[in-house]
Amino acid sequence: MKGSFFESFYSKEVITLPRDLKTDVEGFTFFAKLLDRTRQKKHFIFDFEQVNWLNANLCALLSAIIHHNRRYGAVFSHHPKMNDQHRWTLNNIGLLALLKNIEHLEKNSSAIPLKEFDMVNESEVEEYIYRYILKSDLVPQMSPGAKRKVFRSIFEIYQNSVMHSGASHIYVCGQYFKHKKRMALTMVEIGRTFKENVTSHDQKYSHFTGKQSIEWAVERGNTTKIESETGGLGLDLIREFLRLNQGKLQILSADGYWEEKKGVNFAVDCNTSFQGSVVNIEFNLRDSNRYSTPEELDIKSIL
User: Which CATH superfamily is domain 4-302 in?
Assistant: First the structure.
């Protein structure tokens, strides 16, 4: 369906993006509706002209929706008019290249680019996490052991997103908020939800809502994996780090939303449902602490 010849036969629909697109319940609700709205053979034109604030990490959601709904014959493009800053950002992370269906040529910048990963090329995911997260000078200082633990927790979220969702790919994008001194990393998959996995895991959970399913899944020791499967959800380690770091963890799946910010939990049932899961990790870059693992501290006390 690539090319203007085929697209000329499609009816067109302009989708005006909200004035503010933030990583919150309202922003996630917009994308949940967008996933359903664009699942058809039609030419959708994104209009960014009225957008005042855009969290670039949310492009992971746009990417997931575009890739998924192209399978249903949807065609995507964007209106040429937009704020110069937004154009620079969207071009820099690779969203405009995706909309034009061309290869994105990465530039040397502080951006955390839009990427699509599958389970075949795990080494690419490893390189992405180290290059854009753990090797960044902006991220709080960590010992080699602490870096390994944070890496393992992020990597396990990726692995389990694919394993438990049945999705073939996961979409990732991030953003540095220089003035707020925060860094966000968003991972998205479209497939089985937390709610589907938890309610089918045991009959006693069959009545759980999306919110309750996420709350159950993030509790230490809870898992829907069978004994022969390896790995956990990867949330214990990252939650522990983010509590100390005063960061934030957010999860959207089905009709449930859950977040933990500075150690305080908030969860709500949503009016819309997202057919998949979104995990957003937000680091506090004002953190001047240096992190080590307990094992490293024990060794240092002996030496």
Answer: Histidine kinase-like ATPase, C-terminal domain (3.30.565.10)
